[in-house]
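Q: Could you fold this chain for me?
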Amino acid sequence: MTTAIWWIRRDLRLVDNHALNAACLESDQVVPVFILDDRLFHSQYVGAKRKAFLYEGLRRLDENLRQNGGYLVVRRGEPIAELSRLVHKNQVEAIFAEMDFTPFARRRDLEISRHLPVRWINGAVIHPPGSVTKADGTPYIVKFSITRV
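A: Sure. Below is the predicted structure, expressed as structure tokens.
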């Protein structure tokens, strides 16, 4: 029996979720995991309302998973450490996660890819950054100016 982790980051849906779908297609058992990363969770950009919104989304996701015979695994800490523990504990063969394009996420995900069997899935975007270019390979640039009235 093959086991995979569905590493949930932004997309808390069960329906039309590309990473979840890929994990289910390639594995017999899927462990849904959300990691509360303290580096993000305690940043200046995360306030009480954003945390409440996240907690409600996680509660609903767990409720939906339980209705389908599963449950959500929630961990707090550095993603690489938490994922490593879960990979070894559950004999996981692959981790499926949707790509994230913020500079922080790119650095984090590159480091995790060096140590763990992650399969990055295009999910929440039609065209990933850098995939739409001009004939010469350079990106399109939109120039604008702000006029004060």
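A (continued): DSSP finds five helices and five strands in the chain.
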